[in-house]
Amino acid sequence: QVQVVESGGGLVQAGGSLRLSCEASGSIFSINTMGWYRQASGKQRELVAVVTRGDSTNYADSVKGRFTISRDNAKNTVYLQMNSLKPEDTAVYYCNADTVVLGTLRSVKVWGQGTLVTVSS
Prior knowledge:
Blueprint: E1 2-7, E2 10-13, E3 18-26, E4 28-39, E5 46-51, E6 57-59, E7 67-72, E8 77-82, E9 91-101, E10 107-111, E11 115-120
Parallel strand pairs: 2-11
Antiparallel strand pairs: 1-3, 3-8, 4-5, 4-9, 5-6, 7-8, 9-10, 9-11
């Protein structure tokens, strides 16, 4: 009963910027870590960036200095600001929310459907 929906993907030229958003909704008691992952065609899904409820962050080496993850706990939303985009950043970007379901002590990791980011050279 928890849903995660991403938005903000699209086509951008190399060197450009995009901002992804991800909102969790439903039977949420609290959300621990939220994060962004990506999967390029023919490759495995990989971590891009994660942020804890206390705003501690971790980034993949390939995006450090270019991407910034942030969250708004009041809105159950996580953002990914992507600057200086490169063609190798092209992928489907997925949001993940480690969510404690309302009325339970159960923690579940909920994935969104993904949003496509295409960076042209």
